[in-house]
Amino acid sequence: MSKIFLLKLIDVSKSFKGLEAPVLDKVNFLISSGENIAITGVSGSGKSTLLHLMAGLEKPDHGKVELFGHPINTLSQNKISTIRNKHFGFIYQFHHLLPDFSAIENVVMPLVIRGDDPLANLTQGVKLLKVLGLENRINHMPHELSGGERQRIAIARAIITKPDIILADEPTGNLDYKNAELVFDMFLEITKEINTTIILVTHDNKLATKMNKIYQLTEGKIRTR
Ligand SMILES: Nc1ncnc2c1ncn2[C@@H]1O[C@H](COP(=O)(O)OP(=O)(O)OP(=O)(O)O)[C@@H](O)[C@H]1O
Ligand SMILES: [Mg+2]
User: Fold this and answer.
1) What's the CA gap between 182 and 39, in Å, rounded?
2) Whose CA is nearest to atom 18 of ligand 1?
3) Per-domain boundaries in the chain
4) 24-43 pLDDT tens trace
């Protein structure tokens, strides 16, 4: 029997209008459960695009994306959203917090969307914010918070559903190197406890070396480094 991978990209290609070469050119990528992976590459090499394809936020022009052996790139947006909410956590490069909701409301939002018990959610959310050093920021609005605080809230929001996989796009990009490492180590500790696979996009070599494997995206191809 062939092995079932958590996430599998088969011959995935993606081009955008106005660019001479494809951003991703027949990329093949296998990710097993429990593997933590770093993806590096220069600005514009396609790292964010790759994460968006993995989570079904964008569709490939050619090729297949499989989650637990099931193709997801052919599903409707509705079905993909349900799958994303169940299996994925996403930390965006530019945090994407909802501006009209407080820190704690942003953190518990994925659980509210799932229809889970709101009170239990709050307790869990507050606990996570405390672990991430935000106990005094629970009811603040995003515009009242620093870039680094917003990123930690985005991290808590990705963790709260205990997802199988977290796609993290420069999750500590707004932090100085010392705090980046501190927050990232907390993130690793929590995700290890809940057995989540991490796919990390980063320019920070020190963070990349904390992962099991490092890949580099160059000219549309992904290679181990
Ligand atoms: N929706 C889009 N429409 C057109 N071009 C796009 C779109 N999204 C990305 N691109 C282009 O595709 C290339 C790859 O973009 P992407 O955001 O994946 O790069 P990246 O490796 O994440 O870069 P960075 O390190 O700066 O975040 C860039 O040249 C970008 O301009
Ligand atoms: Mg990017």
Assistant:
1) 20
2) 46
3) 7-224
4) 999 999 999 989 999 999 99
For 41-62, what is each residue's pLDDT tens digit?
A: 999 999 999 999 999 999 999 9
- Using CB distances shorter than 6 Å, the residues near ligand 1 are 16, 19, 23, 41, 43-49, 93
d(CA 92, CA 13): 22
CATH number 3.40.50.300 is the correct assignment for the domain at 7-224: yes
Quote the pLDDT of residue 91.
92
Coil, helix or strand at residue 24: strand
Give pLDDT, residue 1. 57
Which of the ligands is closest to the CA of residue 41? 1
Compute the CA torsion angle 193, 68, 66, 69 (nearest 10 deg): 160
Give the residue ranges of DSSP H helices in 91-212: 103-114, 118-131, 147-159, 177-193, 205-208
What's the one-letter identity of residue 89? G
In ligand 1, which atom is closest to the CA atom of 50?
18
The predicted-structure confidence for 110-130, as pLDDT tens digits, reads as follows 998 888 887 888 998 999 999
